[in-house]
Every structure is written in C-alpha cells, then in structure tokens.
Amino acid sequence: MSILQYFEEKQGGTLPKEYREMTTSQMEERIREIKQILGDKLFIPGHHYQKDEVIQFADATGDSLQLAQLCAANEKAEHIVFCGVHFMAETADILTNDEQRVYLPDMRAGCSMADMADIYQTDRAWDALTEMFGETIVPLTYVNSTAAIKAFVGRNGGATVTSSNAHAMVKWAFTQRERILFLPDQHLGRNTAYDIGIPLEQMAVWDPIQDKLEYEGALEDVKVILWKGHCSVHENFTVKNVIDVRNEHPDMRIIVHPECSREVVELSDDNGSTKYIIETIENAAPGSEWAIGTEMNLVNRLIQSHPDKKIISLNPSMCPCLTMNRIDLPHLLWSLECIVDNEYVNQIKVDQQTAEEAISALDRMLARA
C-alpha cells in the first residue's frame, strides 16, 4: 500500500482496496450489469475531458452546464453519477429536484481554477472594490466556479457565463453597471472583453492572495476587473508552442480554447468553447490539418474520431487534466456498487439558500441564451 492510499483509507469515504485488485474486464462487466439493473433510475453524465475508460459508460457527454441541464431534464433518474469535477456535480445538484441524488465518484476530483476563488477571498475583494468604485460593479462568474461563488454573483445582481455565451453576457453586464468583476478565469474574461472592444489598458487584475488591485492607470479608467485565476491546463499552451507549429506545419490551422492566454489566442487562427472546437473539427474538410489547444483526453478523442484529418495537440508535452483524471473505472464502479447497496457515498449536496442564489445567477444567463 502506498502512503497516499494509506491516508486515503484512514480518512474514510475513499476507494476500498478490493476495487484496486479487480481487472479492467471485471470492472467493465460489473458496470454494465449495474447499469442494466438500475435502468432509467441511473444517469451517468460524462464531461468531454474524461478518460475513455469512463466516457464509454456515459449516457451523455458534453460541457458542464449542458450536462447539468440534461440531469435536470431527466426526471426518471433517481441517481446521477457525475463523471466530471466537483463544481459540475454541484451545478447538477442545484438544478435537479429534491428526489434526485448526485454523486461524484472521487471527491478529490476538483478544479484548480474554481479553487482559485473561494467565497472568503471574494467577499473581501467585493468589500475592497466597492470601496474603490462604489456601486458601479456587476459580478460575472464563469460556470467553472463553486456553488458559493455562483451564489455570491446571484445575490449581487450578476450572472454566470459559459465560454459559448461569454460575449453576450459581458455585453449584457455593461448594460447593468459601468464595470464588471469577472471570476475566476482572467484569461476568458480578458479575451472576451477584448473581443467586444474593451482595450487592455482598461482592464485591471484583482490578486486574491495579496488582496490588491493590479493596475497602473487612473482608477476611473477601469472597465473590467479580472480575478487572478486560470486553468492549469490551458495556461500551459504558450506562444512558443504556436511558433513551433507555424515553423513545423505551415499549412496547419491552430484553434484554441479562450481559457488560453491573450497572447496565445491572438496568435491562433481561431478560438472557441469546447463545443465550438469539436464542431469545427467535425465540419473541417478531409485532409485539413489542425493543432488544438485544449485538454488532452479530448484532443486524443478527436484524433481517433477523425482519421481523415491531421490533428495534433498545440503543446506536444501536454498531459490530461489531472483532477478530471481522478475519475477512473475503480471509482466509477465503487460509486455504482454503493447505489445498489443503498449506500449514498460521495453525494454532493448544496444547501437551499446557496442553491437559490446560484439559480438566480444561472437564470439571468439562461434568459439571454
């Protein structure tokens, strides 16, 4: 037993040893049996970034909000085993009814970006920023955030955004107030605001560790306040990666996710949400060449699904999202076995007040979708 395994078992609520000793074929066969037993009572949503070993058992694949909405629409499902990360399961619990239970197979499957904005930091930042700017700020949060942050945005008149509708939501926010606070991903916020015409010189950055605003100009010029957070996967795509692809593959088009840095997005041929990237590759001409700047499990799946096209990762050294990869066959099987045994392990619950405030932020977005 490794040191990590020892401490996991001592903490409780962690994978029992027996699942580590099963073969892949044994686990796959048992998962199929349980899916047959539970039938419509079970729904397994799988995020695009999940491993193939897990995604093969997903009843639906998609982005986080899309999957949460599918969970809410599937009222027959009593048990939802969300193959993604913690904030995604929270959103599913917020949107589903009280009779439905949502589970995360491995509670260690978090999101480094979401964790870069906790509610205590955000409350302190809001107090400081409203002292600087008065009541001129409306908060927006990427759906890749905790339920507590969604609730904060909801009770302060703001809304959630996705990478697909960020442009529309930032435009909406400027009809509400003079300035926006964009949580928790500075890159999506910066790229979106720049696209709609806000110059970089009017964007400041709030550092939640230092509790200070990073800006060198006059405060009255600030239009966008970006939270100093980022996706640990997408920030690893660099300008050098773009230059290398241009030199080695001159006919290759580069498409990246807007969670990449401004410099990388600016040098690429196109950028868009995960859904947009998938659809772009699907609609591309046979023989076309693509370098994709997004999570490696998805890139590999696109490579396998489109043998008629030359597809590579923009960063050849990129690894899959480590927290997404916490969900594996042993944890998925364990979660399903617990449901069969009427043991509700790793259930995700969001308290009613947080859920109601978060829903108000989601509703403001969905009303403009």
Task: Describe the structure in your own words.
- It is a single chain.
- The chain has 369 residues and is of the alpha/beta class.
- The chain folds into three domains: 3-109 and 323-350, NadA-like (Rossmann fold), CATH 3.40.50; 114-231, NadA-like (Rossmann fold); 234-313, Rossmann fold.
- It contains 17 helices and 15 strands.
- The protein has helices spanning 3-11, 17-20, 24-38, 52-55, 64-73, 86-95, 112-115, 119-133, 147-155, 166-176, 186-195, 239-248, 262-267, 274-283, 296-305, 329-340, 352-366; strands at 42-43, 45-47, 60-62, 79-81, 101-103, 137-142, 159-161, 179-183, 203-207, 212-214, 224-227, 253-256, 270-271, 289-293, 310-313.
- The strands form four sheets. A six-stranded mixed β-sheet has the order 7-6-8-11-9-10, sandwiched between helices. The protein has a four-stranded parallel β-sheet with strand order 13-12-14-15, covered by helices on one side.
- A hairpin with a 4-residue loop joins strand 9 (203-207) and strand 10.
- The radius of gyration is 21 Å and the shape is globular.
- The N and C termini lie far apart (50 Å).
- Mean pLDDT is 93; it is low at 1-12.
